[in-house]
Amino acid sequence: MRTDSEQLNAKVPTGTGDLARRAAADRNLTLGAYLATLVTEDTSGARARFMDVAFGVLDEHADLFDELEETDEGRQGAAAA
Fold first, then answer.
1. Origin, by domain of life (predicted)?
2. Burial 48-57 (b: 16+ CB within 10 A, else e)
3. So what's the pLDDT on residue 4?
4. Which fold has domain 1-44?
């Protein structure tokens, strides 16, 4: 299946290219497909909607997360004593 495509050339900070190639490989995507996915998600609002939902979950369960954090800190303090 052939799709229309456009060649882009961009300079990125040292190490960013390797990170992008590894992230693409982890998702079984080509680098181009991975970058296209990132741009599409970013510009379509999908990422923003995801982040809104994630922050909503964090806000909704803030008391539980605080309790878990306090319990974990108590365990760490007891282990250090």
1. Bacteria
2. eeeeeeeeee
3. 86
4. Arc Repressor Mutant (1.10.1220)
User: For 6-39, what is each residue's pLDDT tens digit?
Assistant: 998 999 999 999 999 999 999 999 999 999 999 9
**Annotated domain spans of the chain:** 1-44, 45-81
Can you tell me the distance from the alpha carbon of 9 to that of 3, in angstroms, rounded to the nearest whole number?
19
- At 42, give phi and psi (nearest 5°): -65, -45
What three-state secondary structure class fits 51?
A: helix
The burial of 58, by beta-carbon neighbours within 10 Å (0-12 exposed, 13-18 middle, 19 or more buried), is given as exposed
